[in-house]
Amino acid sequence: MRATKTGISWRLFLFSCLFLETSSQDFGAQTQFICTSVPKDMDICAATLQNSVPGEDLKTTVMQLRETVLQQKETIMNQKETIRELTSKLSRCESQSGAEPGDARPGARRKDAGSKNTMGDVSRGPADTLTQLSQTLQSLKQRLENLEQFSRSNNSVQASSLKDLLQSKIDDLEKQVLSRVNSIEEGKPGLRNETEQRGRVESTLTSIHQRITDLEKGQRDNRPLDKFQLTFPLRTNYMYAKVKKSLPEMYALTVCMWLKSNASPGVGTPFSYAVPGQANELVLIEWGNNPMEILINDKVAKLPFLINDGKWHHICVTWTTRDGVWEAFQDGVKRGSGENLAPYHPIKPQGLLILGQEQDTLGGGFDATQAFVGDLANFHIWDRKLSVGEIYNLATCSSKAQVGNVFAWMETSLDIYGGASKWTFEACRQLN
Predict the structure, then answer these.
(1) 332 within 8 A of 391, measured Cβ to Cβ
(2) Residue 50 needs a FRET pair 20 to 30 A away by CA distance; which of 1, 320, 335, 364 works?
(3) Chain centroid, CA 398 distance in Å
(4) Which of 329, 308, 334 is nearest to 317 (CA)?
(5) CB atoms within 10 A of CB 109
(6) Euclidean distance between CA atoms 12 and 44, whole angstroms
(7) What pLDDT tens digit does each residue of the chain (432 aa) get?
């Protein structure tokens, strides 16, 4: 029986030596292993680590291996985290590329740079292009009729000849629009050049707008300086008007104006006021499918306005810095109110007030998708909260209506850019 136990112990000793000799190949030539006899009931690694000198070397090696494994595990975890981040970013990019530009919420501020259209007009399909061109042509025709009436009453030969020239150009444009309709209906391959054709047509329209504006400038002496409207016929990033002076510091305000638009989705940005360090100091915007909003110091309040029906509407917004209380009026009637809109934040001075565009930077960074499309008139700003009666007088074109004490609507107070045009204001004349 003893001989048997001795034989088994000896075989375990040989097995231990063979195991360690084979494993030594994995640790390099400089690692030394000592073979020792191991009792039958004892763990091989535990018995080896109990040795005083060689066991310490083996223990150090095992600890180094363990540390290497942990480092590799940490590296793998980091790589997995990187993969998850990249996957998430890829998903966001895919979702953004499939979303409509107008779906983003402007109140969240700031838009991704990739969503901006910095090349001019908003991308439009054939139907949208035709609708836009038709509306513009109608506007031009109406203005030409006004010019014709003026030239007859004043016996102006020059105005009449220019009117005939412009009428001829408009007739040519109508033929191009009709040709575009036929192309769409028949599915001709000429639609491949739609972008270039639209660019040429709208360039001609801009030129016509400028010629009409030149004609209209000759009539300024025949009407009061405040009886005019601004027309923004196209959704671009280059049509706008700049107020020549800045706003003062204000702890309360009232902003009123007449608007007419049937743009969809959203009428755009009637005005924006930016100061150094804050592009959204005071903004009125209806962007995409969102309701109209007013922003003060980048804080947002939704306004209950419904104005994109192609008719003139008078709107007013009042605000006080105390508790951020605001009220909204449409056509002389209070439609909504709220509070906590930028409370205790005064409107800062030394900024730029732009009509027709939303500023992403001071005086620039215009985005065509947020541009105002339509007509704007009688834009006034006060540094106080107007009463309900005062707002009603403005909306009904009463002789008692006041003008803004911070900004009053005057032709001499504005610089016009990009083909935005002026003409006699018609809303109050229609009401009377």
Answers:
(1) yes
(2) 1
(3) 38
(4) 329
(5) 15
(6) 9
(7) 444 444 444 444 444 444 444 444 444 445 555 565 666 666 665 555 555 445 666 777 777 777 777 776 776 776 666 677 666 666 666 555 444 443 444 444 444 434 444 334 444 555 665 666 666 666 666 666 666 566 555 555 555 555 566 666 666 666 666 666 566 656 555 555 555 666 666 666 666 666 666 565 555 555 567 788 999 988 999 999 999 999 999 999 999 999 999 888 899 999 999 999 999 999 999 988 899 999 999 999 999 999 989 999 999 999 999 999 999 999 999 999 999 999 999 999 999 999 999 999 999 999 999 999 999 999 999 999 999 999 999 999 988 999 999 999 998 999 999 878 777 776 676 555
Q: Do 385 and 392 touch, CB atoms closer than 8 A?
A: no
Cα–Cα dist 9/146, whole Å: 118
Tell me the C-alpha to C-alpha distance, in Å, between residue 428 and each of 262, 378, 401, 410.
19, 10, 12, 16
Structure tokens at 29: 């030539």
**Beta-strand relationship, 278-286 and 293-296:** antiparallel
Entry pTM: 0.56
The tokens describing 218, both together, are 């000759």
Whether the CB-CB separation of 412 and 237 falls below 8 Å is answered with no
CB 313 within 8 A of CB 378: no
- Name residue 422's amino acid: K
Question: Which residue is listed with tokens 């769409």?
Answer: 184
Contact, 279 vs 365, CB < 8 A? Answer: yes
